[in-house]
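Incident log, structure service

09:12 report received: a user says their structure output differs between two submissions of the same chain.
09:20 pulled the input from the user's history:
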Amino acid sequence: MGCYFLLIEEELRIRPTHGFIVLGDGTRHRVENTAELRASVLDIADQIRAAWAKLSEPIAVNLRPGQCRKCGMLEHWRQAKV
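09:34 re-ran on a clean worker, output below:
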C-alpha cells in the first residue's frame, strides 16, 4: 500500500491520507499513509537499488585447478581464469 501511496502522490500530486486493502474474504482493512510507512518504503527502495548496484561487482572465488575447464557455464562467466 505504501508503494501505491507514493505512486499516487507522484502522478496526481496529491498525498492520500489512507487506503484500503480488501482481503480474499471481502474484509477491508484501512491503511494510514503515515510518515513512518513512507520512510519504510523509501528505505526498502534504497536497499533494492544498493543490491542491484552490487550485481555487477565481481564475486571472489577460490577455484580448484581445472575446475573451470569442465564447467558448462564457463562461456557465461566474466571471471573465468582458464
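09:41 both user submissions now match this output. Likely a transient worker issue. Closing.
09:42 reviewer note: Strands lie at 18-22, 28-32. Residues 5 and 16 are 6 Å apart (CA to CA).
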